[in-house]
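Below is how a single chain appears once it has passed through the pipeline. First comes the sequence as given, then the structure the pipeline wrote out for it. We keep one example in the README because the format questions we get most often are answered faster by looking than by reading.
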Amino acid sequence: MSNSIIDILSPKGVREFIHSHLNDDPLTLVLQSKKYPDLPIREIAAQIQSRKKAQVKLPEWYEQEGIIFPHGVSMEQCSSEETAKYKASLVQGKSVVDLTGGFGIDLYYLSRQFKKAVYVEQNKELVHLADYNFGVLKAESIDRLYTTAEEYLSTENTPADIYYIDPARRDEANQKVFQIEDCTPDLNLILPQLLDRRAEVLIKLSPLLDINLALKVLPNVKEVHVVSVKNECKELLFRIVPNYEDETKRIAVNLVSGDQSLFEFLDDDISPAFSQPLEFLYEPNASIMKAGGFNAVANSFYVSKLHRNSHLYTSKKHIENFPGRSFKILAQTVVNKKKLKPFLPQGKANITVRNYPLTVKEIRKKTGIKEGGEVYLFATTLMDGSLAMLVCTRV
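Resulting structure:
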Protein backbone atom coordinates (compact mmCIF):
# COMPACT_ATOMS: atom_id res chain seq x y z
CA MET A 1 0.00 0.00 0.00
CA SER A 2 1.36 3.40 -0.90
CA ASN A 3 0.21 6.89 -1.78
CA SER A 4 0.08 5.86 -5.46
CA ILE A 5 -2.32 3.06 -4.51
CA ILE A 6 -4.64 5.71 -3.07
CA ASP A 7 -4.47 7.50 -6.42
CA ILE A 8 -5.16 4.21 -8.20
CA LEU A 9 -8.14 3.14 -6.07
CA SER A 10 -9.84 6.45 -5.30
CA PRO A 11 -11.18 7.40 -8.79
CA LYS A 12 -14.94 7.06 -9.09
CA GLY A 13 -14.82 4.48 -11.89
CA VAL A 14 -12.51 2.22 -9.91
CA ARG A 15 -14.64 2.53 -6.76
CA GLU A 16 -17.78 1.66 -8.75
CA PHE A 17 -16.08 -1.41 -10.23
CA ILE A 18 -15.01 -2.58 -6.75
CA HIS A 19 -18.53 -2.07 -5.40
CA SER A 20 -20.14 -4.01 -8.24
CA HIS A 21 -17.66 -6.92 -7.97
CA LEU A 22 -17.50 -7.34 -4.19
CA ASN A 23 -18.90 -10.85 -4.44
CA ASP A 24 -16.41 -11.93 -7.11
CA ASP A 25 -13.47 -14.18 -6.32
CA PRO A 26 -10.34 -11.95 -6.24
CA LEU A 27 -8.13 -14.63 -7.80
CA THR A 28 -10.57 -15.13 -10.67
CA LEU A 29 -10.55 -11.38 -11.32
CA VAL A 30 -6.75 -11.39 -11.56
CA LEU A 31 -6.82 -14.32 -14.00
CA GLN A 32 -9.35 -12.42 -16.10
CA SER A 33 -7.42 -9.13 -16.01
CA LYS A 34 -7.15 -9.00 -19.84
CA LYS A 35 -10.91 -8.38 -19.93
CA TYR A 36 -10.31 -5.07 -18.12
CA PRO A 37 -7.25 -3.50 -19.78
CA ASP A 38 -8.02 -0.02 -18.46
CA LEU A 39 -8.37 -1.04 -14.81
CA PRO A 40 -5.74 -1.86 -12.13
CA ILE A 41 -7.14 -5.34 -11.56
CA ARG A 42 -4.44 -6.63 -9.19
CA GLU A 43 -4.90 -3.70 -6.83
CA ILE A 44 -8.68 -3.96 -7.18
CA ALA A 45 -8.63 -7.68 -6.37
CA ALA A 46 -6.52 -7.08 -3.26
CA GLN A 47 -8.89 -4.31 -2.17
CA ILE A 48 -11.92 -6.57 -2.65
CA GLN A 49 -10.24 -9.20 -0.49
CA SER A 50 -9.60 -6.64 2.25
CA ARG A 51 -13.12 -5.27 2.00
CA LYS A 52 -14.58 -8.75 2.49
CA LYS A 53 -12.71 -8.90 5.82
CA ALA A 54 -13.71 -5.35 6.69
CA GLN A 55 -17.40 -6.09 6.15
CA VAL A 56 -17.28 -8.32 9.23
CA LYS A 57 -14.42 -6.74 11.17
CA LEU A 58 -15.06 -3.04 10.53
CA PRO A 59 -18.70 -2.59 9.47
CA GLU A 60 -18.83 1.19 10.06
CA TRP A 61 -15.75 1.83 7.95
CA TYR A 62 -16.96 -0.65 5.35
CA GLU A 63 -20.16 1.35 4.91
CA GLN A 64 -18.29 4.66 4.59
CA GLU A 65 -17.95 5.68 0.94
CA GLY A 66 -14.34 6.20 -0.14
CA ILE A 67 -12.46 4.27 2.56
CA ILE A 68 -9.43 2.34 1.28
CA PHE A 69 -8.31 -0.69 3.29
CA PRO A 70 -4.76 -2.03 3.67
CA HIS A 71 -3.73 -5.43 2.38
CA GLY A 72 -2.08 -8.40 4.07
CA VAL A 73 -0.73 -8.20 7.63
CA SER A 74 -1.97 -4.66 8.32
CA MET A 75 -5.57 -5.72 7.71
CA GLU A 76 -5.09 -8.96 9.61
CA GLN A 77 -3.58 -7.33 12.71
CA CYS A 78 -5.72 -4.22 13.06
CA SER A 79 -8.30 -4.17 15.83
CA SER A 80 -11.92 -4.94 15.12
CA GLU A 81 -14.54 -2.23 15.48
CA GLU A 82 -15.95 -3.93 18.58
CA THR A 83 -12.62 -4.14 20.40
CA ALA A 84 -11.65 -0.59 19.39
CA LYS A 85 -14.91 0.77 20.81
CA TYR A 86 -14.32 -1.18 24.00
CA LYS A 87 -10.90 0.45 24.42
CA ALA A 88 -12.47 3.85 23.89
CA SER A 89 -14.94 3.15 26.71
CA LEU A 90 -12.04 2.75 29.17
CA VAL A 91 -10.38 6.15 28.87
CA GLN A 92 -11.06 9.85 28.44
CA GLY A 93 -9.25 13.17 28.84
CA LYS A 94 -7.84 16.13 26.95
CA SER A 95 -5.25 14.38 24.79
CA VAL A 96 -4.28 10.89 23.59
CA VAL A 97 -1.26 9.73 21.59
CA ASP A 98 -1.18 6.47 19.66
CA LEU A 99 2.53 5.64 19.40
CA THR A 100 1.92 2.75 16.97
CA GLY A 101 -0.85 4.15 14.77
CA GLY A 102 -1.01 1.41 12.13
CA PHE A 103 -4.22 1.52 10.10
CA GLY A 104 -5.72 3.91 12.66
CA ILE A 105 -8.78 1.97 13.83
CA ASP A 106 -8.01 2.19 17.55
CA LEU A 107 -7.12 5.87 17.53
CA TYR A 108 -10.17 6.78 15.47
CA TYR A 109 -12.47 5.49 18.20
CA LEU A 110 -10.20 6.61 21.06
CA SER A 111 -10.15 10.15 19.64
CA ARG A 112 -13.88 10.50 20.28
CA GLN A 113 -13.08 10.58 24.01
CA PHE A 114 -10.45 13.34 23.73
CA LYS A 115 -10.17 16.92 22.49
CA LYS A 116 -6.86 16.19 20.77
CA ALA A 117 -5.38 13.01 19.32
CA VAL A 118 -1.98 12.30 17.77
CA TYR A 119 -1.30 9.46 15.36
CA VAL A 120 2.36 8.31 15.25
CA GLU A 121 3.48 5.70 12.72
CA GLN A 122 6.87 4.76 11.24
CA ASN A 123 5.46 3.01 8.15
CA LYS A 124 5.14 5.71 5.49
CA GLU A 125 2.58 3.78 3.46
CA LEU A 126 0.28 3.40 6.47
CA VAL A 127 0.68 7.09 7.31
CA HIS A 128 -0.51 8.04 3.82
CA LEU A 129 -3.44 5.65 4.10
CA ALA A 130 -4.45 6.83 7.58
CA ASP A 131 -4.17 10.46 6.47
CA TYR A 132 -6.44 9.76 3.51
CA ASN A 133 -9.02 7.76 5.49
CA PHE A 134 -9.14 10.18 8.42
CA GLY A 135 -9.88 12.86 5.86
CA VAL A 136 -12.75 10.81 4.43
CA LEU A 137 -14.06 10.26 7.97
CA LYS A 138 -13.67 13.98 8.82
CA ALA A 139 -11.59 13.11 11.89
CA GLU A 140 -10.30 16.67 12.27
CA SER A 141 -9.06 16.21 15.85
CA ILE A 142 -6.36 13.70 14.82
CA ASP A 143 -2.86 14.98 13.98
CA ARG A 144 -0.87 12.59 11.78
CA LEU A 145 2.91 12.18 12.12
CA TYR A 146 5.36 10.04 10.14
CA THR A 147 7.99 9.12 12.73
CA THR A 148 8.96 6.47 15.27
CA ALA A 149 7.59 6.30 18.79
CA GLU A 150 11.06 6.94 20.18
CA GLU A 151 11.66 9.99 18.01
CA TYR A 152 8.26 11.44 18.78
CA LEU A 153 8.80 11.14 22.53
CA SER A 154 12.22 12.75 22.28
CA THR A 155 10.70 15.89 20.72
CA GLU A 156 7.28 16.01 22.43
CA ASN A 157 6.65 19.33 24.16
CA THR A 158 3.45 18.69 26.12
CA PRO A 159 2.74 15.23 27.61
CA ALA A 160 -0.56 13.58 26.75
CA ASP A 161 -3.08 12.27 29.27
CA ILE A 162 -3.05 8.79 27.71
CA TYR A 163 -0.58 6.93 25.53
CA TYR A 164 -1.75 3.92 23.56
CA ILE A 165 0.68 1.28 22.30
CA ASP A 166 0.02 -1.74 20.10
CA PRO A 167 3.54 -3.13 19.59
CA ALA A 168 4.33 -4.92 16.35
CA ARG A 169 4.31 -8.65 17.05
CA ARG A 170 6.33 -9.85 14.08
CA ASP A 171 10.09 -10.22 13.78
CA GLU A 172 12.38 -9.24 10.89
CA ALA A 173 11.39 -12.44 9.06
CA ASN A 174 7.70 -11.46 9.40
CA GLN A 175 7.10 -14.33 11.83
CA LYS A 176 4.69 -13.87 14.73
CA VAL A 177 6.18 -13.28 18.19
CA PHE A 178 4.38 -13.16 21.50
CA GLN A 179 6.84 -12.21 24.24
CA ILE A 180 7.01 -8.58 25.36
CA GLU A 181 10.76 -8.36 24.83
CA ASP A 182 10.36 -9.44 21.18
CA CYS A 183 7.87 -6.70 20.27
CA THR A 184 8.55 -3.35 18.57
CA PRO A 185 8.85 -0.69 19.95
CA ASP A 186 10.77 -1.83 23.03
CA LEU A 187 8.45 -1.28 25.99
CA ASN A 188 11.33 -1.53 28.43
CA LEU A 189 12.74 1.67 26.92
CA ILE A 190 9.49 3.55 26.32
CA LEU A 191 7.52 2.89 29.52
CA PRO A 192 9.94 4.71 31.89
CA GLN A 193 9.62 7.82 29.69
CA LEU A 194 5.84 7.67 29.76
CA LEU A 195 5.68 7.13 33.52
CA ASP A 196 7.98 10.12 34.00
CA ARG A 197 5.32 12.12 32.19
CA ARG A 198 2.79 10.92 34.81
CA ALA A 199 0.54 9.70 32.02
CA GLU A 200 -1.61 6.60 31.85
CA VAL A 201 -0.63 3.95 29.31
CA LEU A 202 -2.88 1.44 27.57
CA ILE A 203 -1.01 -1.46 25.94
CA LYS A 204 -2.53 -4.04 23.60
CA LEU A 205 -0.75 -7.40 23.56
CA SER A 206 -1.26 -10.86 22.08
CA PRO A 207 -3.95 -13.10 23.65
CA LEU A 208 -1.31 -15.86 23.65
CA LEU A 209 0.84 -13.97 26.14
CA ASP A 210 1.13 -15.37 29.67
CA ILE A 211 -0.58 -12.74 31.85
CA ASN A 212 1.32 -13.64 35.02
CA LEU A 213 4.66 -13.33 33.26
CA ALA A 214 3.62 -10.02 31.71
CA LEU A 215 2.72 -8.62 35.13
CA LYS A 216 6.24 -9.40 36.30
CA VAL A 217 7.66 -7.33 33.45
CA LEU A 218 5.21 -4.42 33.17
CA PRO A 219 5.17 -1.88 36.03
CA ASN A 220 2.21 -0.23 37.78
CA VAL A 221 -0.51 -2.30 36.06
CA LYS A 222 -3.88 -1.34 37.53
CA GLU A 223 -6.05 -3.47 35.24
CA VAL A 224 -5.72 -6.31 32.78
CA HIS A 225 -8.61 -6.61 30.33
CA VAL A 226 -8.99 -9.93 28.53
CA VAL A 227 -11.15 -9.12 25.50
CA SER A 228 -13.06 -11.76 23.56
CA VAL A 229 -15.48 -11.38 20.65
CA LYS A 230 -18.14 -14.09 20.44
CA ASN A 231 -16.13 -16.14 22.94
CA GLU A 232 -12.89 -15.99 20.93
CA CYS A 233 -10.07 -14.31 22.84
CA LYS A 234 -8.75 -11.43 20.71
CA GLU A 235 -6.45 -9.27 22.81
CA LEU A 236 -5.03 -8.39 26.21
CA LEU A 237 -5.12 -4.79 27.41
CA PHE A 238 -2.78 -3.67 30.19
CA ARG A 239 -3.74 -0.36 31.82
CA ILE A 240 -0.74 1.25 33.51
CA VAL A 241 -1.20 4.08 36.01
CA PRO A 242 1.80 6.00 37.42
CA ASN A 243 2.69 5.07 41.02
CA TYR A 244 -0.01 2.38 41.20
CA GLU A 245 1.25 -0.36 43.53
CA ASP A 246 -1.90 -2.23 44.60
CA GLU A 247 -3.20 -5.55 43.30
CA THR A 248 -4.03 -5.76 39.61
CA LYS A 249 -7.71 -6.14 38.77
CA ARG A 250 -8.49 -8.68 36.06
CA ILE A 251 -11.46 -7.93 33.84
CA ALA A 252 -12.78 -10.64 31.53
CA VAL A 253 -15.07 -9.26 28.82
CA ASN A 254 -16.94 -11.07 26.07
CA LEU A 255 -18.39 -8.87 23.32
CA VAL A 256 -21.37 -10.25 21.42
CA SER A 257 -23.33 -8.09 18.96
CA GLY A 258 -22.88 -4.90 20.94
CA ASP A 259 -23.52 -6.48 24.34
CA GLN A 260 -20.84 -6.94 26.99
CA SER A 261 -20.47 -9.76 29.49
CA LEU A 262 -18.05 -8.58 32.21
CA PHE A 263 -16.50 -10.45 35.09
CA GLU A 264 -14.02 -8.70 37.39
CA PHE A 265 -11.90 -10.14 40.16
CA LEU A 266 -8.82 -9.38 42.25
CA ASP A 267 -8.02 -12.53 44.18
CA ASP A 268 -8.33 -16.03 42.75
CA ASP A 269 -6.64 -17.81 45.65
CA ILE A 270 -9.76 -18.63 47.68
CA SER A 271 -10.52 -22.33 47.20
CA PRO A 272 -14.01 -23.07 45.78
CA ALA A 273 -16.43 -25.82 46.71
CA PHE A 274 -16.20 -29.14 44.85
CA SER A 275 -19.02 -31.47 43.89
CA GLN A 276 -20.03 -34.40 41.76
CA PRO A 277 -22.24 -33.38 38.80
CA LEU A 278 -25.59 -31.96 39.97
CA GLU A 279 -28.50 -30.65 37.86
CA PHE A 280 -26.70 -28.01 35.78
CA LEU A 281 -23.26 -27.65 34.18
CA TYR A 282 -21.37 -24.43 33.39
CA GLU A 283 -18.43 -23.61 31.15
CA PRO A 284 -16.91 -20.11 31.67
CA ASN A 285 -16.32 -17.96 28.62
CA ALA A 286 -12.90 -17.76 26.99
CA SER A 287 -11.93 -14.48 28.66
CA ILE A 288 -12.45 -15.86 32.16
CA MET A 289 -10.40 -18.92 31.31
CA LYS A 290 -7.57 -16.78 29.92
CA ALA A 291 -7.73 -14.38 32.88
CA GLY A 292 -7.31 -17.33 35.24
CA GLY A 293 -10.51 -16.69 37.18
CA PHE A 294 -11.17 -20.39 37.82
CA ASN A 295 -11.80 -20.08 41.55
CA ALA A 296 -13.17 -16.53 41.50
CA VAL A 297 -16.01 -17.38 39.11
CA ALA A 298 -17.00 -20.37 41.25
CA ASN A 299 -17.09 -18.30 44.43
CA SER A 300 -18.85 -15.34 42.81
CA PHE A 301 -21.70 -17.39 41.34
CA TYR A 302 -21.94 -20.04 44.08
CA VAL A 303 -21.24 -22.97 41.79
CA SER A 304 -19.03 -25.96 42.56
CA LYS A 305 -16.08 -27.23 40.54
CA LEU A 306 -16.06 -30.78 39.24
CA HIS A 307 -12.28 -31.04 39.68
CA ARG A 308 -9.44 -28.65 40.42
CA ASN A 309 -8.13 -28.87 36.85
CA SER A 310 -11.35 -29.46 34.91
CA HIS A 311 -12.71 -25.87 35.01
CA LEU A 312 -16.29 -27.06 34.69
CA TYR A 313 -18.87 -26.10 37.29
CA THR A 314 -22.16 -27.45 38.59
CA SER A 315 -25.18 -26.44 40.70
CA LYS A 316 -28.60 -27.74 41.76
CA LYS A 317 -30.44 -24.60 40.66
CA HIS A 318 -29.85 -22.82 37.38
CA ILE A 319 -27.66 -19.68 37.58
CA GLU A 320 -29.18 -17.45 34.90
CA ASN A 321 -26.43 -14.82 34.68
CA PHE A 322 -23.41 -17.14 34.63
CA PRO A 323 -20.77 -15.65 32.26
CA GLY A 324 -20.43 -18.55 29.86
CA ARG A 325 -22.41 -21.49 28.52
CA SER A 326 -25.04 -23.21 30.67
CA PHE A 327 -26.35 -26.76 30.29
CA LYS A 328 -28.90 -29.12 31.78
CA ILE A 329 -27.26 -32.44 32.70
CA LEU A 330 -29.32 -35.33 31.32
CA ALA A 331 -27.05 -38.19 32.27
CA GLN A 332 -23.61 -39.23 33.46
CA THR A 333 -21.91 -42.09 31.66
CA VAL A 334 -18.53 -42.99 30.15
CA VAL A 335 -16.91 -42.79 26.72
CA ASN A 336 -18.43 -45.95 25.31
CA LYS A 337 -20.25 -46.30 22.00
CA LYS A 338 -23.01 -48.58 23.30
CA LYS A 339 -23.66 -46.57 26.46
CA LEU A 340 -23.84 -43.28 24.58
CA LYS A 341 -26.04 -44.54 21.73
CA PRO A 342 -29.40 -44.23 23.61
CA PHE A 343 -28.78 -40.49 24.10
CA LEU A 344 -27.88 -39.86 20.45
CA PRO A 345 -30.74 -40.98 18.17
CA GLN A 346 -29.16 -39.11 15.24
CA GLY A 347 -25.65 -40.25 16.07
CA LYS A 348 -24.57 -36.61 16.45
CA ALA A 349 -23.27 -34.50 19.33
CA ASN A 350 -21.13 -31.48 20.15
CA ILE A 351 -18.15 -32.77 22.13
CA THR A 352 -15.98 -30.78 24.57
CA VAL A 353 -12.96 -32.15 26.42
CA ARG A 354 -11.86 -30.69 29.77
CA ASN A 355 -9.08 -32.42 31.72
CA TYR A 356 -9.52 -35.73 29.92
CA PRO A 357 -6.88 -38.10 28.43
CA LEU A 358 -8.48 -38.28 24.95
CA THR A 359 -8.95 -35.53 22.37
CA VAL A 360 -12.26 -34.75 20.68
CA LYS A 361 -10.95 -36.35 17.48
CA GLU A 362 -10.00 -39.53 19.35
CA ILE A 363 -13.41 -39.72 21.04
CA ARG A 364 -15.20 -39.34 17.71
CA LYS A 365 -13.04 -42.06 16.19
CA LYS A 366 -13.67 -44.38 19.15
CA THR A 367 -17.45 -43.84 19.30
CA GLY A 368 -18.36 -42.96 15.71
CA ILE A 369 -20.25 -39.87 16.90
CA LYS A 370 -20.66 -37.25 14.16
CA GLU A 371 -20.43 -33.53 14.78
CA GLY A 372 -23.58 -31.43 15.29
CA GLY A 373 -27.04 -31.89 16.72
CA GLU A 374 -28.57 -30.55 19.93
CA VAL A 375 -26.81 -32.84 22.41
CA TYR A 376 -23.62 -31.67 24.16
CA LEU A 377 -21.11 -34.14 25.56
CA PHE A 378 -18.46 -33.17 28.11
CA ALA A 379 -15.59 -35.59 28.67
CA THR A 380 -13.92 -34.67 31.94
CA THR A 381 -12.40 -35.77 35.23
CA LEU A 382 -14.50 -35.59 38.41
CA MET A 383 -13.47 -34.60 41.92
CA ASP A 384 -12.77 -38.23 42.92
CA GLY A 385 -10.45 -38.68 39.93
CA SER A 386 -12.88 -40.80 37.91
CA LEU A 387 -13.43 -40.17 34.19
CA ALA A 388 -16.92 -39.30 33.00
CA MET A 389 -18.95 -38.26 29.98
CA LEU A 390 -21.74 -35.82 30.84
CA VAL A 391 -24.71 -35.77 28.46
CA CYS A 392 -26.26 -32.29 28.31
CA THR A 393 -28.55 -29.89 26.47
CA ARG A 394 -28.15 -26.10 26.28
CA VAL A 395 -30.13 -23.93 28.66
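The radius of gyration is 25 Å.

See the next section for the split statistics.
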